């Protein structure tokens, strides 16, 4: 993958000859199956263990960012202004550090070639939006920071390869380094003190396992969760179980899951995924004071999937049909094969009959993405076999009759890495800013 050149150079309508360099990019969300939890260096954002994630399709979930460099207009050197989903935000220390690193790379480039425009210290305007509602209950820091690093690389014409952009994105948020690639992505923890070997790499592309997909079950959360950054720091300081995980568990799991992915071996992939999610949450419980990310809805999802896998294995000969995984919150991400989506979706729907808004009459409050298309069973035979399956499953798990179980279900597939938008399509305006520099 090569990074396309500068997207635009246009004349500022108010300042006349002011030149504006800008780029607009999009970047995907990734959900880990081997979890990153813990830093060995906060300053360099280096992890205590390697991790591995799947990149999700940007059509359902993506961040989009425009970075504009204002060359001749008034403005303080090295200034930057940031808007997130239309609201002006202060730059965090990490974003400031990320921008400083990228500007330093531009300084070096300009020092080597006097003929290129002087962009390094010019004011930056940054606008970022997500195509999924914040209320979807999904963290947007990985896609958001990957997108920022990708767009700054283009706007400042740094021409860095994706691996280098990934290392920069890591400074914004650890998990962001994996969103620079599509498909199946490992983040190798590395061992060098300067972090130069702590890099993300693509294990397999988005087309490698075409029937792999994901269902995101958004659980209604009333409680505010402990942010990942603070949570993992306390875990590093207090959990003996984390040390065992780092030394004795993750290294073998990384090898095993890469093998499972290469062989498209769903049974192995699923078991490692579920075990790793379980251990991550066990490590959270072993933190002192403990951290609770799973709630009673999450527990019920785990029981339902466990029971379903058991019942299903009798007829399809596979050990697992669905794998669950949970990040720092109660939402479940289910990895499964496309041919099983319809049945699983209807099963989940019937076990969580009362959505947040039970009054609206829909079993689950809101469907997002492509879920709706699966809700009706195709035929009488399908309906009958699903009824029999449900009867079996219900021997092991009770329906969640309370209201406020699941809020939303998002169906999505495995997708590609960041994109520069509008490149090559003359006249297409993808900018998140008006010509006057106001977020649209
Ligand atoms: C549970 O990347 O959000 O999602 O590096 O402090 O920004 P910081 O943390 P963050 O942590 C993600 C933790 C996780 C697991 C994972 O994505 O691997």
Secondary-structure blueprint:
Layout: E1 8-11, E2 19-28, E3 30-34, E4 39-41, E5 46-47, E6 51-55, E7 62-70, E8 80-84, E9 87-89, H1 93-112, E10 124-130, H2 141-155, H3 162-172, E11 184-187, E12 200-204, E13 212-219, H4 228-238, H5 240-262, H6 266-286, H7 296-316, E14 322-326, E15 332-337, H8 341-351, E16 366-369, H9 380-393, E17 406-413, E18 419-420
EC number: 4.1.1.33
Catalytic activity: (R)-5-diphosphomevalonate + ATP = isopentenyl diphosphate + ADP + phosphate + CO2
Domain Diphosphomevalonate decarboxylase-like N-terminal: 27-200
Give an overview in words:
With 440 residues, the protein is α+β, with helices and mostly antiparallel strands. The protein has two domains: 199 residues, Ribosomal Protein S5, domain 2, CATH 3.30.230; 202 residues, GHMP kinase, C-terminal domain (Alpha-Beta Plaits). The chain is 33% helix and 22% strand. The chain has nine helices and 18 strands. The strands form four sheets. Strands 1, 2, 7, 8, 9, 10 and 18 form a seven-stranded mixed β-sheet that branches. Strands 14-15-13-17-16 form a five-stranded mixed β-sheet. A hairpin with a 5-residue loop joins strand 14 and strand 15. Helix 2 crosses helix 3. The longest helix is centred in the middle third of the chain and has 23 residues. The N terminus is likely disordered. Ligand DP6 binds next to helix 4.
């Amino acid at each position: 993958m090569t990074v396309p050149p500068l997207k635009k150079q246009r004349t500022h309508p108010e300042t006349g000859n002011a030149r504006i360099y800008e780029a607009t990019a999009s970047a995907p969300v990734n959900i880990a199956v081997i979890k990153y939890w813990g830093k060995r260096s906060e300053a360099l954002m280096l992890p205590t263990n390697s991790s591995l994630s799947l990149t999700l399709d940007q059509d359902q979930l993506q961040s989009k960012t425009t970075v504009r460099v204002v060359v001749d207009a008034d403005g303080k050197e090295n200034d930057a202004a940031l808007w997130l989903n239309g609201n002006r935000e202060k730059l965090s220390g990490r974003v400031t550090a990320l921008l400083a690193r990228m500007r330093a790379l531009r300084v070096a480039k300009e020092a080597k070639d006097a003929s290129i425009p002087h962009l390094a210290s010019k004011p930056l305007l940054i606008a970022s939006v997500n195509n999924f509602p914040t209320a979807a209950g999904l963290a947007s820091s990985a896609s958001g920071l990957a997108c920022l690093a990708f767009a700054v690389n283009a706007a400042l014409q740094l021409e860095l390869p994706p691996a280098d952009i990934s290392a920069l994105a890591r400074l914004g948020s650890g998990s962001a380094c994996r969103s620079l690639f599509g498909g199946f992505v490992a983040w190798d923890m590395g061992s060098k003190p300067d972090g130069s070997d702590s890099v993300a790499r693509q294990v397999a592309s988005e087309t490698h396992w075409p029937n792999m997909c994901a269902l995101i079950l958004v659980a209604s959360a009333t409680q505010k969760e402990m942010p990942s950054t603070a949570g993992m720091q306390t875990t590093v300081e207090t959990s003996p179980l984390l040390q065992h995980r780092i030394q004795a568990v993750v290294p073998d799991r990384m090898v095993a899951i890469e093998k499972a992915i290469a062989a498209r071996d769903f049974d192995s992939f699923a078991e490692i995924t579920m075990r790793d999610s379980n251990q991550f949450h066990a490590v959270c419980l072993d933190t002192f004071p403990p951290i609770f990310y799973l709630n009673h809805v999450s527990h019920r999802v785990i029981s339902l999937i466990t029971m379903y896998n058991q019942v299903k294995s009798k007829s399809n000969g596979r050990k697992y049909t669905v794998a669950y995984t949970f990040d720092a919150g109660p939402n479940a991400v289910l990895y499964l094969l496309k041919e099983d989506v319809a049945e699983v979706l209807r099963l989940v729907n019937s076990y969580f009959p009362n959505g947040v808004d039970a009054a609206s009459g829909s079993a689950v409050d809101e469907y997002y993405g492509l879920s709706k298309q699966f809700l009706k069973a195709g035929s009488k035979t399908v309906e009958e076999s699903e009824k029999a399956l449900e009867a079996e499953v219900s021997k092991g798990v009770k329906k969640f009759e309370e209201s406020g179980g699941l809020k939303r279900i998002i169906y999505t597939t495995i997708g590609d890495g960041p994109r520069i938008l509008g490149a090559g399509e003359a006249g297409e305006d993808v900018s998140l800013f008006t010509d006057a520099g106001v977020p649209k």
